[in-house]
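Retry 2 of 3 after timeout on previous attempt. Resubmitting structure tokens to design endpoint.
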């Protein structure tokens, strides 16, 4: 089976491509630019992207990872339209050309932000919740899902939507990488009294689930479904930091500052969004993936964190 992967050089894409190859699938990596032997270059993704060269390789399934991703400090005056151009119009353009080329299934990596940014631990997000996106990136992912679903219903293209929460693993960047570096350097953090609950997904677990959804024979019931997935273990920010410190063999200097004070300080400094991620809860119900597809996480959080230390030692 041939699997075309957009965003093949990204954090998730690299791991996905190597896993697919290791499991015997033929992989067609899609790149924005690069040498031909590394994959097929298509340039920037948008409504005018020409996918003919890539689709001439006759893939059976496409895993669409490429997107304009969420950034903490958005500088564009019209960010939503830019997100829409890449994530909505670009994805729909790919789906149209893919169907014409005979592709049977499209696996679309969305985001848990379609559901929202915060919830209560006893009210986890579910796949059938009414979307509640709160920023331009989340709105674009919501609209992309809707556009692709409408297209699939009319044309018969098989569509699988996956909304992961925070993904961590070897090579992770962003806030997770920053917190890891603070811990390694021994920086005291005022995060020792946070009793929130958050769902995360290990890179290996996410990739394993994507591979399952890309294989039409193994996952016939995935067609036209939306899945929320996680490691199956919810954890507080404080406990997460302690675990990261433990696997890296360092001491976590976590000062137990009251959450109320942290929120006040964050509001004053204009860091409300960051505070929500560190202090708020975001729990997902991943039981649908287990019941419908029989999927179970393949690694524990501690094992994935340990693999991060080994990756860092090599690099």
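Retry 2 succeeded. Sequence:
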């Amino acid at each position: 089976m041939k699997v075309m992967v957009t965003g093949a050089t990204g954090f998730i894409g690299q791991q996905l491509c190597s896993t697919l190859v290791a499991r015997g699938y033929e992989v067609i990596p899609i790149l924005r630019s690069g040498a031909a032997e590394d994959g097929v270059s298509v340039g920037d993704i948008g409504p005018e992207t020409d996918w003919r060269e890539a689709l001439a390789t006759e893939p059976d399934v496409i895993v669409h990872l490429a997107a304009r991703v969420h950034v903490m400090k958005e500088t564009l005056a019209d960010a939503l339209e830019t997100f829409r151009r890449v994530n909505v119009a670009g994805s729909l353009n790919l789906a149209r050309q893919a169907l014409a080329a005979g592709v049977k299934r499209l696996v679309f990596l969305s985001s848990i932000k379609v559901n929202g940014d915060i919830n209560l631990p006893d009210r986890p997000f579910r796949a059938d919740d009414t979307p509640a996106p709160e920023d331009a990136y989340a709105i674009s992912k919501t609209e992309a899902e809707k556009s692709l679903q409408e297209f699939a219903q009319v044309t018969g293209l098989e569509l699988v939507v996956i909304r992961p929460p925070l993904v961590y693993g070897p090579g992770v960047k962003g806030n997770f990488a920053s917190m890891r570096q603070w811990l390694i350097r021994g920086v005291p953090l005022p995060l020792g009294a946070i009793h929130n609950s958050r769902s995360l997904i290990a890179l290996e677990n996410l990739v394993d689930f994507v591979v399952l959804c890309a294989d039409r024979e193994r996952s016939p019931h995935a067609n036209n479904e939306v899945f929320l997935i996680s490691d199956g273990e919810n954890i507080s920010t404080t406990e997460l930091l302690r675990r990261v410190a433990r696997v890296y063999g360092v001491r976590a200097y976590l000062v137990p500052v009251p959450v109320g004070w942290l929120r006040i300080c964050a509001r004053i400094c204009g860091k409300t969004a960051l505070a929500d991620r560190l202090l708020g809860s975001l729990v997902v119900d991943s039981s649908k993936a287990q019941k419908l597809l029989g999927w179970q996480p393949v690694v524990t959080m501690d094992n994935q964190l340990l693999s991060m230390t080994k990756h860092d030692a090599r690099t």
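Attempt log closed. The CA atoms of residues 75 and 267 lie 20 Å apart.
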